[in-house]
Design a protein that fits this description.
CATH architecture: Up-down Bundle
CATH topology: Amino acid/polyamine transporter I
Order of helices and strands: HHHHHHHHHHHHHHHHHHH
CATH superfamily: Amino acid/polyamine transporter I
Number of domains: 1
Number of strands: 0
Shape: globular
Largest sheet: none
Structural class: mainly alpha
Helix content: over 70%
Number of helices: 19
Oligomer: single chain
Distance between the termini: 83 Å
Length: about 425
């Protein structure tokens, strides 16, 4: 007897088929959002979150909650632009604003990303020092290894390995609970903002913003979506991928602050080296804490150090219509390969300066990212609200409200930081810190 459309068995199989096709569609686009967000939990991110917990305990937890909302909106906007236009951010900037504004946007991107590449090599050096390997050996070897892997097209094969290594920082979630923090204080600090008008606090606040909503994350996210050929048909799956990445990334950030607040802050330990930051993992890993921390730091740094120079070079070349891409040979993409190589060399060379305080460099770079971030956000806001470009996918009122508030607040903090740290001292006014 033939089965009819109303047969319960057929209905069940149809529902299962729809769910399976949805899962397959999601798995097909899984990657850009998760990698972009977790790459934000790089060496500079870990150093900044750990420093926040060590210096101020739980008092900056509220910042992570607020930033998570801002990060979700910003990453969603570039995800939407990628699937709707099929073009990268730098390409759209050139088309809509012309060469002069493109040059301005790319110069700020270069400054921010070059500084971040320096911080990735600082992370590599700090991680290898925990294994007893000096930076004068580890940094040159890893720089050459990254160049070789990327140019020969083998980086994608090991990218997942670095991503897996960086998940060692999930241990901070367990360590936070094992450290037995004052959960009443944790909850209060999560929802009750604390602000101090002193340079050290504002620097760390700006660093938290700069490392969570890192400028290169938006460039990479949109370019990766375009490169993977993800279209509007897979918008929901791409958005889910982005949301998972944002939540996972900021969950790690939140518990790093809790763990370091419950261990380093209560003991009065100031973070000067990677070994100091690793102390927060001792409730979980005991004497092996520094090695667990080193593995995570190395993986996160190598992941970002591989992604960032390529994404930066691609964006700059795309912006000016120069030939780019690792599938091109050197003779046809000289600027692309040259810029990529220079960024790697610069990042490694700066870290080889004798006596350079690695952990302080990591945090300072995030401050630079935070100060430059509003410039990129302004371009994104103009583009995502362009009805000619985005059609019915322009921002709604809620997204515009959150995005403009984020941009204005970060810009205002940048000005406040400059005034308090540099201008007021010229008149003999010092607010402390």
């Amino acid at each position: 007897m033939a089965k009819t459309a109303g047969d319960p068995g057929n209905q069940l199989r149809a529902r299962f088929g729809r769910r399976r096709s949805t899962l397959v569609a999601y798995l097909a686009v899984l990657g850009p959002g998760v990698i972009a967000a977790l790459a934000g939990d790089d060496a500079g991110g870990i150093a900044t979150y750990a420093s926040a917990g060590a210096l101020y305990g739980y008092r900056l937890l509220w910042v992570i909650v607020v930033i998570t909302v801002g990060l979700f909106v910003v990453q969603e906007m570039v995800t939407r632009m990628g699937v709707v236009t099929g073009k990268g951010l730098s390409d759209l900037i050139r088309e809509r604003f012309g060469v002069r504004w493109t040059a301005f946007a790319m110069s700020t991107l270069l400054i921010a990303n070059a500084a971040t590449i320096v911080s990735e090599f600082a992370g590599i050096a700090a991680a290898m020092e925990l294994f007893g390997v000096t930076k004068y050996i580890s940094v040159p070897i890893m720089a050459v290894a990254l160049w070789w892997l990327i140019v020969k097209g083998s980086y994608r094969r090991v990218e997942r390995v670095f991503l897996l290594m960086s998940t060692a920082f999930l241990a901070y979630i367990i360590a936070a609970f094992m450290a037995r923090p004052n959960w009443g204080e944790v909850v209060r600090s999560t929802f009750v903002p604390t602000v101090q008008l002193e340079p050290s606090f504002l620097l760390l606040l700006m660093a938290l913003i700069g490392t969570t909503i890192t400028p290169y994350m938006q460039i990479f996210q949109q370019s990766a979506i375009v490169d993977k050929g993800i279209t509007v048909r897979n918008y929901d799956e791409a958005r889910a991928d982005m949301a998972i990445g944002v939540l996972l990334s900021d969950l790690i950030a939140y518990f790093i602050i809790v763990a370091t607040g419950a261990t380093l802050y209560v003991k009065g330990i100031q973070i000067q080296t990677a070994a100091d930051a690793a102390v927060a993992l001792e409730p979980l890993a005991g004497p092996f804490a520094k090695y667990l921390f080193a593995i995570g730091l190395f993986g996160a740094s190598m992941l970002a150090a591989g992604v960032l120079p390529v994404a930066t070079s691609f964006s700059v070349c795309e912006a000016f219509g120069w030939q780019s891409g690792l599938d091109e040979d050197f003779t046809h993409a000289r600027i692309f390969y040259g810029l990529f190589t220079i960024l790697l060399i610069l990042g490694a060379a700066v870290i080889l300066i004798p006596g350079l305080p690695l952990f302080q460099v990591l945090v300072l770079v995030q401050v630079i990212n935070g100060v430059l971030l509003p410039i990129e956000l302004l371009f994104i806001m103009r583009l995502v609200n362009d009805s000619e470009l985005m059609g019915r996918y322009v921002n709604g009122r809620l997204f515009n409200a959150i995005a403009w508030t984020t941009t204005i607040v970060i810009g205002s903090l940048s000005v406040l930081l400059i005034v308090i740290s540099f201008i007021l001292p010229l008149f003999g006014i010092n607010l402390g810190g």
